[in-house]
Specification:
- The structure is a single chain.
- With 675 residues, the chain is α/β, with parallel strands linked by helices.
- It has 22 helices and 27 strands.
- It binds NADP nicotinamide-adenine-dinucleotide phosphate (NAP) and iron/sulfur cluster.
- The site of NADP nicotinamide-adenine-dinucleotide phosphate has 25 residues, from helix 18.
Length: 675
């Protein structure tokens, strides 16, 4: 499949971008690390090598107050030019182009010198911002211009001015955060003065032949945000003020609507970007939940956008554009929008990486070095850990045979991919299906090799990645016909009735509840259903583009579902930080009941009997779905050890408790790179 629109160069008049692939800005937290700028240079250099048309760095603050928190980086004086030059040079060496993002976090800041247009705090930050004086606003504009000028000196091709997601500039634009009565507040004309002044001042300082990108919010998704009309007025005004490219953003960080997680169908926000595109002549960039070259191609071909921004997809695969150009789109390691190793890491102050690509942000630590002497390797088990290990080992030149007892690769991913909204997990399996044969890996499905066979097979190394088996809890009646395992429920191997009890409230319990309370929809209806469910005003007539009352309205469910766990405490505590709230909101709206602190008494014809707070109760249900975690399958490993072999053990077979795919793929990859 070719992608003529996506791969077409974009002429900006004074410079030409090699294609329409735009790497959106992302926090990586590398800037907090020792040697972080060199690591950032390697990170962006790899994305330039992958033929990304234009890269935008993570945000750098124009002054101290603009920082998100301790340890962030400013770019405000000439002494910082050499460290910034590392990034510009690394990208240019690979033939790419790069803009530095200037980011002022305003009232999102997590430090005491927090400022904003007014003293209105953000709902997601306990700190109240100090309103800037008019003189300080002037100084801040100067600071933006200074950072832009320094960026030019450091060798960057341009700057991006972050005007969306509820950051500082956006805070001036919206009534929800700006109640000033001076020349920086009041009417929309006054509220939009700040971005316009910044653009003009930046342009004066950097000249005409320097890319200036403005990231505009095309839909705020918060009360007291901007209306559609205001957004179009702003788009035309920033174009007039001298911007070269208009990037798009969706929603404030405190929006009650998910904008980028897997539950958001691909290209959901295209309609909002298309409206801005119609209002201006400069190129417009579509962003949020585009992870596939065909989807990007369709958006550009239709005229809804000129470029497509992909931040996480380029974390997942730095060679996205190159593979698309070389006709190897099936080898793109697709971002599955899980947030598990990128945003969820950032929120707990860890360096960002990627579930499907553990090398992301670790480019200087790991290099795929060809093996000095190719070995014959058997990997047993084609779940995430085994697949990752087989791929890494084969890429280094080893001869790898991958055994899988079932008829398909994927292991636990074969459950995840069947959950509505988690269809993206299919892409990871498609990637391995395409990539492994090309790396020469022999895949033997429906094959369960015995220890003796492996011992006599002439392998230099056996890797045991036999995964997990669902835990069968010790509850009287657990073999009753109305009991099904999560795997049986998810794959449809056994039917699930209308009244359901779910034993276990971990990630899989939540996923199963979601699957059972949501009617699956054909692909063509998913975007409209999503927008309706989350109350998005697609006409954007309201302030912020949200229809009132929708999020508080219960949703119908085809089943009556009750989830249980033995622990007391907050349900859903083990879910992803940036995705769990979406799942919890949906289950709440579908009226799923949750009971903690139970002990299970028995399962019989009536249903599930349990005790809570010393009181014995019975849940009358048709089906009990067991989602009680997993146990390692390591018989093969033990047998190999008893034969005197030294097998390696990875993934769930090594550690079932709190096993997650991030760990499985990272350990599989590391082992493959070390063999
Ligand atoms: P899990 O997160 O460990 O949860 C297991 C659940 O089973 C817990 O609620 C636990 O609660 C219960 N349980 C454990 N032993 C039990 C026993 N003997 N009898 C009855 N109940 C028992 O495991 P999981 O849900 O299978 O998930 C596996 C991994 O995949 C986890 O790392 C999870 O984070 C990840 N995952 C995440 C998501 C997501 O974030 N959306 C989705 C799927 C999977 P009590 O012990 O309190 O009863
Ligand atoms: Fe995408 Fe998940 Fe990787 Fe983040 S961790 S880049 S969401 S695949």
């Amino acid at each position: 499949m070719s992608f003529p629109h996506l791969l077409q160069p974009l002429d900006l008049g004074f410079t030409t971008l090699q294609n329409r692939v735009f790497m959106g800005s992302m926090h990586t937290r590398l800037e907090h690390e020792e040697g972080g700028m060199a690591r950032l240079a390697a990170f962006y250099g790899a994305r330039a090598k992958g033929e990304t048309g234009l890269i935008i760095t993570g945000g750098f603050a124009p002054n101290d107050a603009a920082l998100l928190g301790e340890g962030g980086r400013t770019f405000k004086n000439a002494s910082q030019i050499p460290e910034q030059r590392l990034i510009a040079d690394a990208v240019h060496r690979e033939g790419g182009k790069v803009c530095l993002q200037i980011l002022h976090t305003g009232r999102y800041a997590k430090h005491d010198n927090i400022v904003g247009p007014s003293n209105i705090r953000s709902p997601i930050n306990p700190r109240v911002p100090r309103p800037l004086t008019a003189k300080e606003v002037e100084q801040t504009i100067e600071d933006y211009a200074m950072t832009a000028a320094l960026s030019r000196e450091a060798g960057y091709d341009g700057v991006e001015l972050m005007g969306s997601e509820g950051y500082f500039i956006h805070q001036f634009l919206a009534p929800r955060s700006n109640n000033r009565s001076d020349e920086w507040g009041g009417s929309f004309e006054s509220r939009m003065r700040l971005p316009l002044e910044i653009i003009k001042r930046v342009r004066q300082r950097v000249g005409k032949d320097f890319i200036v990108v403005y990231r505009i919010s095309v839909l705020d998704l918060v009360e007291g945000g901007n209306t559609g009309e205001e957004i179009l007025t702003l788009a035309r005004a920033v174009e007039q003020a001298g911007v070269d490219l208009l990037n798009s953003g969706i929603g404030w960080h405190d929006a009650p609507v998910p904008t980028i997680v897997y539950a958001v169908p691909r290209a959901t926000w295209r309609f909002a970007v298309a409206k801005v595109k119609q209002a201006v002549k400069i190129p417009v960039v579509l962003s949020n939940r585009i992870n596939d070259p065909a989807v990007a191609e369709a958006a550009i071909a239709s005229g809804d956008a000129d470029m497509v921004s992909m931040a996480r997809p380029l974390l997942a695969d730095p060679h996205f554009a190159k593979k698309a150009r070389e006709g190897r789109a099936d080898e793109i390691n697709t971002c599955i929008a899980c947030n598990q190793a990128c945003l969820d890491y950032i929120f707990v102050n860890k360096v960002c990486s990627c579930l499907v690509n553990p090398l992301a942000c670790h480019e200087t630590e790991y290099a795929m070095v060809p093996a000095a002497a190719p070995k014959k390797i058997a990997v047993v088990g084609a779940g995430p850990a085994g697949l990752a290990c087989a791929a890494a080992a084969a890429e280094r030149g080893h001869q790898v045979t991958l055994f899988e007892a079932s008829g398909e690769i994927g292991g636990q991913f074969n459950c995840a991919r069947r959950i509505p909204g988690k269809e993206e997990f299919n892409e990871t399996l498609r990637y391995y299906r395409a990539r492994l044969p090309r790396l020469g890996v022999k895949i033997k499905l429906n094959t369960r090799p015995g220890a003796a066979e492996l011992a006599s097979g002439g392998y230099d190394q056996v890797v045991v990645a036999t995964g997990v088996t669902p835990r069968i809890p010790d509850i009287p009646g657990i073999r009753h016909p109305k009991v099904v395992s999560y795997a049986e429920a998810i794959t449809g191997a056994k039917p699930v009735g209308k009244r359901v009890a779910i034993v276990g409230m971990g990630g899989i319990g939540y996923d199963v509840a979601e699957m059972l309370c949501v009617e699956p929809l054909p692909e063509g209806q998913r975007i409209a259903a999503f927008l309706k469910e989350w109350g998005v005003d697609t006409e954007n007539r309201t302030q912020g583009g949200l229809l009132t009352g929708i999020l508080q309205t219960p949703l119908p469910s085809p089943r009556k579902i009750t989830m249980l766990q033995r622990k007391t405490g907050r349900p859903g505590g083990t879910l992803g930080l940036t995705t769990g709230w979406v799942l919890k909101t949906r289950l709440q709206r579908h009226q799923v009941e949750m009971i903690g602190g139970v002990s299970y008494d028995k399962i019989d014809d009536e249903g599930l009997h349990y005790t809570v707070n010393g009181e014995r109760k019975a849940l009358v249900v048709d089906t009990v779905v067991v989602c009680a975690g997993q146990e390692s399958s390591r018989e093969l490993y033990d047998e190999l050890v008893s034969l005197g072999m030294k097998p390696a053990l990875i993934g769930g077979a090594e550690k079932a408790a709190e096993l997650d795919a991030v760990y499985a793929i990272r350990e599989g990859t590391r082992l493959g790179m070390a063999l």
